[in-house]
């Protein structure tokens, strides 16, 4: 995990709790976004690019687009299922 | 009062909350990946069929059931 960057002003860095938490949340969000991107890339490559040609076909492109939408939707469904237990 | 104290109870509390949120986020991420593989077998459509959507829901809930069984078993 990245270390926190220090404030640019002042010779003795003093972090407030707010500063620390803001930086933490920002870095967490970035990490989640990267992880999500990597996962979607993998899933949609598997589903949509079954026989790589010399360029992306129209059907491959629309498959990718649908795949991204479905994966985002799936994430929502799983989230809801976990917290709306019977 | 030292605002940069890493040992402040307030900070520790906020960190604990963020850790909890992170664990939940990771669980959702892993489960979505696993359940996608189990449930979305064909090419992605412009919407989920009801069987695909139900499968995803079931997948998450059965995983939690299983998790409970495993914990109970390991506590014996």
Set down the secondary structure blueprint:
The complex is a heterodimer of chains A (86) and B (76).
Chain A: H1 17-48, H2 58-83
Helix pairs in contact in A: 1-2
Chain B: H1 9-39, H2 50-75
Helix pairs in contact in B: 1-2
Mind explaining what this structure looks like?
- Chain A: It is found in: Mitochondrion inner membrane; Mitochondrion intermembrane space.
- Chain A: This is Mitochondrial import inner membrane translocase subunit.
- Chain A: It comes from Salvia splendens.
- The complex is a heterodimer of chains A (86) and B (76).
- With 86 residues, chain A is an all-alpha fold.
- Chain A is built from 2 helices and no strands.
- Chain A has helices at 17-48, 58-83.
- The longest helix of chain A has 32 residues, at 17-48.
- Chain A is elongated.
- With 76 residues, chain B is mainly alpha-helical.
- Chain B has 2 helices and no strands.
- Chain B has helices spanning 9-39, 50-75.
- In chain B, α1 crosses α2.
- The radius of gyration of chain B is 19 Å and the shape is flat.
Task: Name the descriptors.
heterodimer; A: about 90 residues; mainly alpha; B: about 80 residues; about 0% strand; Tim10-like (chain A); zinc (chain A); mitochondrion inner membrane (chain A)
Query: Separation of termini of chain A?
Result: 37 Å
Q: Mean pLDDT of chain B, as a whole number?
A: 93
The separation of the N and C termini of chain B measures 48 Å
Query: Biggest interface pair, residues each?
Result: A-B, 35 and 34 residues
Envelope shape of chain B: flat
What can be said about the biggest beta sheet of chain B? none
Query: What count of helical segments of chain A does DSSP give?
Result: 2
Q: Could you spell the SSE succession of chain A in H and E letters?
A: HH
Range of strand content of chain A:
under 5%
Global morphology of chain A: elongated
Structural Rg of chain A: 20 Å
Q: Strand content of the residues of chain B, in percent?
A: under 5%
Oligomeric grouping of the chains: heterodimer
Percent range for helical residues of chain B?
A: over 70%
Structural class of chain A: mainly alpha
């Amino acid at each position: 995990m990245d270390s926190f960057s220090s404030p640019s002003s002042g010779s003795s860095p003093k972090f407030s709790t707010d500063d620390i938490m803001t930086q933490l949340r920002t870095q967490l969000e970035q990490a989640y976004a990267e992880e999500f991107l990597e996962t979607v890339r993998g899933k949609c490559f598997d589903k949509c690019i079954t026989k790589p040609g010399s360029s992306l076909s129209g059907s491959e492109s629309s498959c990718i687009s649908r795949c991204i939408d479905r994966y985002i939707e799936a994430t929502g469904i799983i989230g809801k299922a976990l917290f709306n237990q019977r | 009062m030292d605002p940069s104290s890493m040992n402040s109870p307030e900070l520790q509390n906020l960190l604990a909350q963020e850790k909890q949120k992170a664990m939940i986020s990771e669980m959702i991420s892993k489960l979505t990946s696993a359940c996608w593989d189990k449930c979305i077998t064909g090419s992605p459509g412009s919407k989920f069929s009801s069987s695909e959507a139900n499968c995803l829901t079931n997948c998450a809930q059965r995983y939690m059931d299983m998790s409970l069984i495993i914990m109970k078993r390991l506590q014996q």
